[in-house]
Amino acid sequence: MRCESCGEREAQIQFTKVEGDETSLSHLCAECAAEQGLGADFPSEAAPLADFLAQIGTEGAGTTAAPATESCPYCGTSALDFRKSGRLGCSQCYVHFGPQLQPLMRRVHGSTQHVGKIYLSPSVEGDDVEARVATLKRRLDRAVEVEDFESAAELRDEIRELTAVE
Description:
7 helices; mainly alpha; two-stranded antiparallel ribbon
């Protein structure tokens, strides 16, 4: 595929730009990407996610960054190990490196709190119905809170369906 900017060289970089609700995808050669300020340090091949996270982890983490020699008291993973691999060693690393991880999580995910989906088991027998209804009610409250009324209506209907069976 040719570079969308110059049309002369082979595109090496796929750049996705998200602004509000709009997403645009560009395929650029390294030279055009550098001209547009996207940086000249892109690898010629696709970088693995761990490399991406490691690169982000080294960017100006500010005063909250742990010294590279500091390590997790439980597993021994150091801040330097995390920066190199992009991976933590154990669940306690999240607690130990918390001040360093907060800005990273905010940059990568836009938030430091998980607001993802809750797994619901497909089986609805006996006591599972009550647990499922309780979970659906929590999801309904969350949907109303974020003003996702379409999801809220679907959840309401599903709750009615489950409670009518009892």
